[in-house]
Each structure stands twice: as structure tokens, then as C-alpha cells.
Design goal:
The protein has 158 residues and is mainly α. Helices cover 87% and strands 0% of the residues.
Length: 158
């Protein structure tokens, strides 16, 4: 029973990571296309809240539920597909952490432009391009992790 509950929690966490990440990317990209500071400020503010509530919670709980699940089932963490999943998880985090800071900065830059009645500054566009570029490897790494979890292929890493 405990293993089933941990599996459910782990799958929900993976779903939240993928779904929130995809949703955030979609809404930020759509808002960005308008180049309207007021709209971007609003959407980016919501994105920062969603990342804090949903993504950060799932980021913390995924390794906990994964470790407990592996321990209960008897999978060693050095098992190839698990080790590769953990490596991809770190890769995802290396791209996600700067994205969180960038989203806050994009929100603040858009708010300042909206308040001043000005257009978005060049720094906004520079940071947006970095934010956009960081999303691809992070998203692909999450897809890779999901594939590994579902298929559990026989992989020798070490």
C-alpha cells in the first residue's frame, strides 16, 4: 500500500513538473509576443507564483518520493535508469534555477516599463532570449526522465 501511494505521489509530481513547465512556457511566450508591458507583467507575476507553489514543491518532493519508492521496491539508486534519471534531474535543475531568477527579473522589468508608460527595455529582451533557450534542455531532460521511469531500460552507466 505504501509503495502504491509513493508511486502515485511520484507520478503526480512528475506530471506537475511537466505540466507547469509547459504551461509557464506557453503563457510567457504568448504574453511576450504582445510586447505589452502591462500584460507581460501580469502573466510573469502569475508565472512566478505558479513556479513557487507548484514547481518548487514538486522539485523538492520528487527526489524524496523517488528515493522512498526505490528503497521500498528494492531498486538500487545506482541502477542505470535511476542514475541517469538523477543526472537528468540535476541537468533540469541547472537550467531551471536561472530561469526562476530570470522570470522574476522579467516581471520586474515589465512592471517598471508599464508603470513608466514605456516600452520594454533591451535588458528584458536579452533575458527573455536566455529564458527561452534554457527551457529547451530542461524540457527535454524532463521528457527523458519520464521515458526512463516508464520504460526502466537496462542501462549500464558505471
Amino acid at each position: 500500500m505504501l509503495a502504491e501511494l509513493l508511486l502515485l505521489a511520484h507520478v503526480i509530481g512528475a506530471t506537475v513538473l511537466l505540466g507547469t513547465g509547459a504551461g509557464i512556457a506557453f503563457f510567457m511566450a504568448k504574453a511576450h509576443r504582445t510586447q505589452a508591458p502591462e500584460l507581460i507583467a501580469h502573466v510573469a507575476g502569475t508565472v512566478v507564483i505558479a513556479d513557487t507553489i507548484f514547481t518548487a514543491t514538486a522539485v523538492f518532493l520528487q527526489p524524496v518520493t523517488g528515493y522512498l519508492l526505490a528503497t521500498i521496491i528494492g531498486w538500487p539508486l545506482g541502477e542505470g535508469w535511476i542514475a541517469l534519471s538523477l543526472i537528468l534531474y540535476v541537468v533540469t535543475g541547472l537550467f531551471w534555477l536561472p530561469v526562476v531568477w530570470i522570470q522574476v527579473r522579467l516581471r520586474d522589468l515589465a512592471r517598471a516599463a508599464a508603470t513608466a508608460g514605456e516600452q520594454l527595455p533591451p535588458e528584458y529582451f536579452r533575458l527573455y532570449h536566455i529564458w527561452f533557450a534554457c527551457g529547451f534542455p530542461a524540457f527535454l531532460a524532463v521528457i527523458g526522465i519520464l521515458w526512463l521511469m516508464v520504460n526502466k531500460p537496462s542501462i549500464t552507466l558505471f
